[in-house]
């Protein structure tokens, strides 16, 4: 999973996809449409430099009614940037706790 993120952040891939993107490890959301419906991009692995080909396939535009997955990925990225910690389905500030001495 980390290698997928690292590959998408390679400079030669960023030239095609652009700076703004949302990626969860499987789905890539871009604010613009790529020129070809099936795009093949060549780069090198950051670890050993072996050549890799990335294939980006245009599936379709996301309609406003079907944006739940996109919003979940965006909010997870925002919470990570704000240094919030996920506990169950909720996010909390780990440094914002209030001690209640009578309840230990």
UniProtKB/TrEMBL annotation:
InterPro entries xrefs: PAZ_dom_sf (IPR036085)
Any one Pfam family match given in the protein's UniProt record, by short name: Piwi_N
SUPFAM superfamilies named in the record: PAZ domain (SSF101690)
Protein name: Piwi-like protein Ago3
Species classification: Eukaryota, Metazoa, Ecdysozoa, Arthropoda, Chelicerata
């Amino acid at each position: 999973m980390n290698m997928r993120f690292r590959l998408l952040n390679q400079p030669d891939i960023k030239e095609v996809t652009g700076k703004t993107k949302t990626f969860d490890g499987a789905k890539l959301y871009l604010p613009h449409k790529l020129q070809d419906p099936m795009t093949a991009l060549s780069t090198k692995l950051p670890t050993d430099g072996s050549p890799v080909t990335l294939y980006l396939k245009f599936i379709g535009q996301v309609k406003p009614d079907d944006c739940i997955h996109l919003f979940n990925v965006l909010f997870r990225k925002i919470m990570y940037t704000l240094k919030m910690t996920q506990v169950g389905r909720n996010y909390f500030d780990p440094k914002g706790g209030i001690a209640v001495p009578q309840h230990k």
